[in-house]
Amino acid sequence: MAVVVRVVYWARGPEYLQLKKKLEDEFPSRLDICGEGTPQVTGFFEVFVAGKLVHSKKGGDGYVDTESKFLKLVAAIKAALAQA
């Protein structure tokens, strides 16, 4: 069963597609990744794993632009996969 990862982001930046590819490479065929681009500048880059907010640019996390931020998502996904 695939874990749903939802990313809400401002549609202009490449960050969503970069994160999507990196997660797909890490978890081939195990994730259902969907992005929701906002039509206006929002400052959003919010990542939900199995319905739980695990990364929030608005909350001070910034983009997923470091290994430690990425590993935080990986850990959340692994936990969700273990419960699936």
Structure description:
- The protein is of the alpha+beta class.
- 40% of the residues lie in helices and 31% in strands.
- The chain has 3 helices and 4 strands; from the N terminus they run βαβββαα.
- It has helices spanning 15-26, 57-61, 67-83, and strands spanning 3-10, 31-38, 45-49, 52-56.
- It has a 4-stranded mixed sheet with strand order 2-1-3-4.
- Helix 1 (15-26) links the parallel strand 1 (3-10) and strand 2.
- It is globular, with a radius of gyration of 12 Å.
- The model has no long low-confidence stretch (mean pLDDT 94).
- Pfam families: Rdx (PF10262).
- It is found in: Cytoplasm.
What are the defining features of this structure?
alpha+beta; four-stranded mixed beta sheet; 3 helices; 4 strands; 84 residues
Sequence of strands across the biggest β-sheet = 2-1-3-4
As residue ranges, the low-confidence spans are none
Radius of gyration (CA) equals 12 Å
Number of helices: 3
Shape: globular
Summarize the amount of helix as a percent range.
Answer: 40-55%
Distance between the termini: 7 Å
Which structural class matches the secondary elements? alpha+beta
Number of strands: 4
Mean pLDDT across the residues is: 94
Strand percent estimate: 25-35%
Largest sheet: 4 strands, mixed
Q: Helix and strand succession?
A: EHEEEHH
